[in-house]
Amino acid sequence: MTQANPYDVVGAARGLFDYAGNLVRPTLRLGVTGLSRAGKTVFLTALVQALISRSRLPVLRVASEGRLARVRLEHQPHDTVPRFAFEDHLSALTGADRHWPESTRRISELRIVIEYRSASSWLPGQSTLTLDIVDYPGEWLLDLTLLTKDYARWSRETLAGAAKPSRAGIAGPLLGLTGTMRPEQVFEEADARRLAETFTAYLRACRDDALSLSMLPPGRFLMPGDLEGSPALTFAPLALPEGWTPVPGSLAATMQRRYEAYKREIVRPFFREHFSRLDRQVVLVDMLSALNAGREAVADLETALTETLTAFRTGQNSLLSSMFAPRVEKILFAATKADHLHHTSHDRLEALLRLLVNKAMVRAESAGAEIDVIAMAAVRATREAQVRQAGESVDCIIGVPMRGERIGDEVFDGHDEAAAFPGDLPADPATMLSAAPSQRESAFRALRFRPPLLERHPDGRVKGLPQIRLDRALEFLIGDRLR
């Protein structure tokens, strides 16, 4: 099936409009997304708070050089897109009962205006950069891969994944149901609903901690919003024979129709209205959950990251591309929750993520895009210490475990601090991909911690959220536009 080019005439016209506006008001559009449980809401909240407070950013040159004059929030560009609830999320992190904010399950926007002094003697006085942040679920990003697949191919790939031995415990109902459905049978809405509900339950089970899989499109099945129950979300894969052709009025023909409607009415508008207009992009990755789950989760994460990069139109913008088809110039892949490991493993976590995206990075960099990989913690919930154990010093992390977390027989109440030895990642990241958890150089155990107690000014304002390498992320993403 021939796929239409998503970069259509409307998109080209919108690109020209954006380009003209950028000449009057320099603007950078930054996309922020995260694969499942990567901490996207925390990252974006910490990023905005760090810029507004202008603290704890030694690697961001405009801040360390004293050229950052003022940062303020301004009315976002689109009245029909929800605003990122920065104030609510910051209150959750810094309030008396500090807790991690609820994950966002839809697209949102925020506009930040950055006033700074240029480092160049040729540009005296104050300059302004408008940073428009587009926050969207990582599941929606993975949906873009569907634009290149017809229903038959998607069905084959999805059912082949479900048939893997590691998914036997969760895929049985889906495989059993699809095995009883004949593609040519007459369509009945009850059959479609049973299939869609069983398929959705399978996707949810794939995302749970035991498997921690990432490559789970269609993403709206996990985050339906106001589309729940609509025909566009009432389809599922079917076991189709080789050379299958749709029979009008059949179950498979209707499933195909709804699959194509999902791409046309849901995926393509997101691509056209938001995704295709980004200048820079952050992709947050929860590496630790995948490592805990095992080799299949890591391999699935690698596939998801590779597919992610193929979805981007990457490369340096020329005059014509800036006017008609803007390209993503910079992409940052960030392994989050680095504070769950001792700092001696941070570079190793980064090296492992770099290994997973290496093939896709080569392709994107050959197109002129700039890509970086870091291990970071947007909000650092732990501190480090050495603990004497059996006559030896052990590198530990200390924090307040969340209520219900446990080490051995000890269950934590959410109030008392605890020291934990999370383990070390191996020096060679390849061993993490090839070895089973029991065969690795050392395993690690990741507790979930509450947000940290914070330093405050005399008037009660937070001095800044502790972080690991958030300033490096900002320097890569926007530093060149603040020279």
Briefly summarize what is shown:
This protein has 483 residues and is α/β, with parallel strands linked by helices. It is 37% helix and 16% strand.
Give a description of the structure:
Helices cover 37% and strands 16% of the residues. The chain is an alpha/beta fold and 483 residues long. The strands form three sheets. A seven-stranded mixed sheet has the order 2-3-4-1-5-6-7. Helix 11 (295-311) runs parallel beside helix 13. The longest helix has 23 residues, at 251-273. The radius of gyration is 24 Å and the shape is globular. Residues 9-13, 15-20 and 317-325 have low confidence and may be disordered.
What would the keywords be for this entry?
483 residues; alpha/beta; 15 helices; 37% helix
Proportion of helical residues? 25-40%
Enumerate how many helices there are, as a single number.
15
Question: Gyration radius, to the nearest Å?
Answer: 24 Å
Helix and strand composition category: alpha/beta
Strand order of the largest sheet: 2-3-4-1-5-6-7
Mean pLDDT: 86
Q: Would you identify the regions where 5 or more consecutive residues have pLDDT less than 50? A: 9-13, 15-20, 317-325
Overall geometry comes to globular
Biggest pleated sheet: 7 strands, mixed
Give the termini separation: 47 Å
The strand count comes to: 12
